[in-house]
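Hi U.,

Before I forget, here's the chain from the pilot set. I'm dumping it here mostly so it's searchable later in email.
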Amino acid sequence: MPPGRGERAPRRPHHGDRSPRRARRAARPPHPVDPAGRLRLRRSGCLRAHRRHRPPARRADHQRGGGPRRRRPDRLQRPARAHRSAPDRGRSPRGPLRGPDPVRLRRTLLFVPGVTPERIAKAAASRADGVILDLEDAVAPPQKAQAREWVVAALRRVDFGGRERIVRVNPLDTPEGLADLVAVVPLGPDALLLPKVRSAADVEGAAAAVSRLEADAGLTAGAIRLHLIVETVAAVLGVRRLADASPRLVGLFFGAGDFVRETGGRLVASRMSELHAMSELLLAARAAGRDAIDTPYFDLASAAGLETHARFAADLGYDGKAVIHPNQIDVVNGCFTPTASAVTEARRIVEAYEAAEASGRGALTVAGQFVDAVHVEMARTLLTRARLAGVA
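Structure:
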């Protein structure tokens, strides 16, 4: 109740008093830093890149017990921060990024445990479109440091023959994830695969840390791209924000195992327990211009099951699939590579449309089917993928 007439109002705290917020802040433990002192964890679990520096001296009028704060003269004249429009998404706070991601085939991305150097060498010579050097799930905790050393050595010495070199790091709210970034970013892998991502803030924090480490290593800003694993209920519900969280992003991976475990469902042959999440991821990826990569298939003995699993994702519109064994590569490549008949039909559609356009005709039919601009764009996309795969 406000004080009545004649009563004294409670004293407002003086500038020198410690507020509850300041008291809580002072009681927090210090953030962990890496040995070089360049990275630390935010309270949200995201990484923040920074350099150690001495705090600036406080002005006399801000000292404890001093006079009131002075309002900045330009406080009211500062323009509101403009929303970043779509054409500016290729820029970072440090300046322009490298530019659009080069067109890549990502039909098959082969996971290899980072602790097995002999398998890394074999994967680099496989028919996979990319190799994922795994420092997370495939490596037991006592072997994390050794795996990190082997991955660093592979990035330095192994010829991957133009395949995409991706490193799956540990979650970035752990000391292992922090150490992974510090070790592998200076070697310039093509991309990092971030697991256990839950929010856009996680992606933004990781991108900021990579930017700092790139700069320290003298790499081109934005040279290292990011893939995300969407494997939790929270990530699926926020996947549209995740897909647009950083211009470094090039791919969204679906992680079915953890997702279905959280929902309480079951992994079934029809994939109905995964369909909604897969669709949400695909729509978000397409809206943001990212690739959509399907979850691995774990029954190594069933080639027929693998083909059915991969064909489901390909028919839905996915660009490729993660694989866990070299024996899966050819089957999955076949599911995501245009067939000869599809290439022939696409070429016929494009040629007929271009001829009609040159003669000033509008709508046309090819083999008895109506063709418009949407069909032509789909045909051109298919031909591009076929050329990259060497079948056109």
